[in-house]
Write a structure and sequence with these properties.
The complex is a heterodimer of chains A (109) and B (114). Chain A has 109 residues and is mainly beta. Chain A is built from no helices and 11 strands. In chain A, strands 2, 4, 5, 9, 10 and 11 form a 6-stranded mixed β-sheet that branches. Chain B is mostly beta strands and 114 residues long. Chain B contains no helices and 11 strands. In chain B, the strands form 2 sheets. In chain B, strands 2, 4, 5, 6, 9, 10 and 11 form a 7-stranded mixed β-sheet that branches. Chain B has a 4-stranded antiparallel β-sheet with strand order 1-3-8-7, with no helix packed on it. The chains are: A mainly beta (109), B mainly beta (114). Chains A and B meet through strand 4, strand 5 and strand 9 of A and strand 5 and strand 10 of B.
């Protein structure tokens, strides 16, 4: 069974700082990896999808990388803003999607 | 642009009561999913339907049943609710299972069993 781990569980940074969120998984036989954002009391919003053949994807201030061989992905957020405060989850896609427990990010004004 | 719609948003049940969570998607997706989210546990798959007419168990199916009513709708039923089923339930859909898919989520249903 695929195990997905996200470290750290919580992160607090001052506004403007660049930061990296980590996601690791145990089975490298994946189709894709997806990063989500979850605001309190809300559903999950997809941020970036990386296919297994890709190394990275970028959207605005977000950059996600994937290293299948080492079972790792990172989400890089540039110039963080208070509006980035949320929980970030990664999901590994095979025939099913397996989720990490998330990193709760707080950006302090 | 509704996406994935699930009802109800909030529900309080007494132990032993039954209820059905409804989910509908308007994106013509083949695959639909029910997850539960608990603190410290992440999202866990309860049941999924890879395509209309098929359903399969996920990681935590005990105490639940599902129905893929048609391509749009996928319901989750609790036949005899237990306090351990207190959770946030998310319905999701994707074009298909497997490669290249983005999964889309509903807003969640908060269920409390007392």
């Amino acid at each position: 069974k695929q195990e997905v781990t996200q470290i750290p569980a919580a992160l607090s940074v001052p506004e403007g700082e660049n930061l990296v969120l980590n996601c690791s998984f145990t089975d490298s036989a994946i189709y894709n990896l997806q990063w989500f954002r979850q605001d309190p009391g809300k559903g999950l919003t997809s941020l970036l999808l990386i296919q297994s053949s890709q190394r990275e994807q970028t959207s605005g201030r977000l950059n996600a990388s994937l290293d299948k061989s080492s079972g790792r992905s990172t989400l890089y957020i540039a110039a963080s803003q208070p509006g980035d405060s949320a929980t970030y989850l990664c999901a590994v896609g095979g025939n099913q999607f397996y989720f990490g427990t998330g990193t709760s990010l707080t950006v302090i004004p | 642009n509704a996406g994935v719609t699930q009802t109800p948003k909030f529900q309080v049940l007494k132990t032993g009561q039954s209820m059905t969570l409804q989910c509908a998607q308007d994106m013509n997706h083949n695959s639909m999913y029910w997850y539960r989210q608990d603190p410290g546990m992440g999202l866990r798959l309860i049941y999924y339907s890879a395509s209309e007419g098929t359903t399969d168990k996920g990681e935590v199916p005990n105490g639940y049943n599902v129905s893929r009513l048609n391509k749009r709708e996928f319901s989750l039923r609790l036949e005899s609710a237990a306090p351990s089923q207190t959770s946030v339930y998310f319905c999701a859909s994707s074009p298909r299972t497997g490669a290249g898919n983005t999964i889309y989520f509903g807003e969640g249903s908060w269920l409390t069993v007392v």
